[in-house]
Amino acid sequence: MLITQKKQYALRAIFELAKQQGEEPVKTSIIAEAQAIPLRFLEVIMGQMKRAGVVASKRGFFGGYTLVDPPEQIRVGDIFRALDKVEKAEVCMSCASKGNCPFLGNCVFMGLWDQAQLAVNSVYDQMTIQALIDQENMMTGTEN
Prior knowledge:
This protein has 6 helices and 2 strands; from the N terminus they run αααββααα. The chain is mainly alpha-helical. It has a single domain, classed as Arc Repressor Mutant, subunit A, CATH 1.10.10. A two-stranded antiparallel sheet has the order 1-2.
């Protein structure tokens, strides 16, 4: 699972939303400023997170975003998978040539790439947004 800038922004956005979440929805401008994410890019990402069921939105002056599930139930892998448009087992995620691989289906390295991908996914799936918030609180000496 390649960690693109978009995935980094999405993770930071959900992280900030979890930190800011209370009774009222959180505006994208607050998330963007806190996490140094370009606002237009964040709006696209939040739209994708909404379609994936990670966040809910409310329109209007008092509008913004809220998490659908509590932070302890949202895994980093869930966020990354929500942004992945195509998850096909037959596509080699590590091949630089992607769709034009001359060895597709007959690649000696495919098992290696698959094992590495499973290991990476396991790490992402073990880490929740709440665990990241807890880590930040320990680093900064604050508690929520």
